[in-house]
Design brief:
alpha+beta; four-stranded mixed sheet; globular
Length: about 220
């Protein structure tokens, strides 16, 4: 299986000539990208179909009438959505040594906190971007924008505190879901809100992001 940048993705879930799964959505979405990077690290076979929920609405609608990215079409044609639920499937498909969730209870709880902060930061970033890009200027509600910006800044402040403990990754010598989602979210917010989320104010996150972006898995599915 060939990844977006030409990298080979080894097969573990392609048996008896079954069609590979299809991941639908653009890689500028943190939700799509975290699934693509995770599946790559787990050696899960899939094809990435970069459809926009905006410019390719009709094509996306024909696959999933809800038009939600990411959408995953399994090898039997089942349509799934929501990155968290899709990643649960990945955990079931992945070999034991390629799972992205820490095994210990305390580590699992901490990982879930980190992922929750990163997802909250992503969600608030999306809300700001949509308000600026989709709503007419005269209809934008500045008090609401101020509140959402306060939330995204708070999420990254708390995430920075967590990520300072990474050595080199948060839970050992390889990236797990907490690393992936944190790095994907930070790159997304830096690209979308460069005047709000500044690398110099988040040195640990900036270092984690740079380390992650230098890996083969992140390079196979670059922010675009």
């Amino acid at each position: 299986m060939i990844g977006k940048s030409g990298s080979v993705i080894p097969a573990i879930n392609q048996e008896n000539g079954a069609r590979p799964m299809k991941l639908i959505g653009m890689l500028d979405s943190p939700y799509v990208r975290r699934v693509a990077v995770s599946f790559h690290l787990q050696n899960i076979v899939f094809e990435h179909q970069p459809l926009s929920v905006f410019s390719a609405f009709d094509t996306f609608f024909a696959i999933n009438p809800v038009v939600k990215a990411p959408t995953l079409v399994t090898d039997d044609g089942t349509v799934l959505m929501d990155s968290g639920l899709i990643l649960e499937l990945g955990e079931r498909l992945a070999a034991f040594d390629l799972k992205l969730t820490p095994a210990g209870f305390d580590a699992h709880v901490r990982a879930q906190r980190i992922i929750g902060l990163a997802l909250a930061a992503s969600e608030k970033t999306v809300q700001i971007v949509y308000e600026h890009n989709l709503r007419p200027t005269e209809r934008q509600h500045q008090p609401w924008l101020d509140r959402v910006q306060l939330q995204v800044v708070a999420a990254y402040r708390l995430l920075e505190d967590e990520v300072r403990q990474a050595d080199p990754w948060l839970f050992g010598d390889r990236p797990v879901q907490a690393d992936i989602t944190s790095a994907v979210a930070f790159r997304f917010s830096r690209e979308m809100l460069p005047d709000v989320i500044i690398a110099e104010a988040h040195p640990a996150l900036a270092a984690l992001s740079s380390r992650a972006e230098a890996t083969e898995a992140f390079g196979a599915f670059p922010f675009s």
